[in-house]
Design goal:
alpha/beta; Hypothetical Protein Mth938, Chain: A; three-stranded parallel sheet; globular
Length: 74
């Protein structure tokens, strides 16, 4: 589970989209506190298996203010 405390450094800058790589099998997820916080801030959350999340990041990083965290094991 990824919580607000896990990504505090990413949130020090203004982002429009947060991409979370959920590991190869896609088991990691954002907790409810993080989901609520992002919704209140108007930040779109994208959760995908890590390989897909990397592709999404590469497609968006020049178009939007994007933050990302990639879970590498699981």
């Amino acid at each position: 589970v990824c919580g607000l405390g896990d990504i505090q450094d990413l949130l020090r800058v203004e982002i429009e989209v947060l991409i979370l790589g959920k590991g190869k099998p896609g088991m990691m997820r954002a907790d409810q506190e993080l989901r609520r916080f992002l919704e209140q801030q108007g930040v779109r959350l994208i959760e995908q298996p890590t390989a897909e999340a990397v592709v999404t990041f590469n497609n968006l990083y020049r178009k939007k203010r994007v933050g990302a965290g990639f879970h590498l094991t699981c």
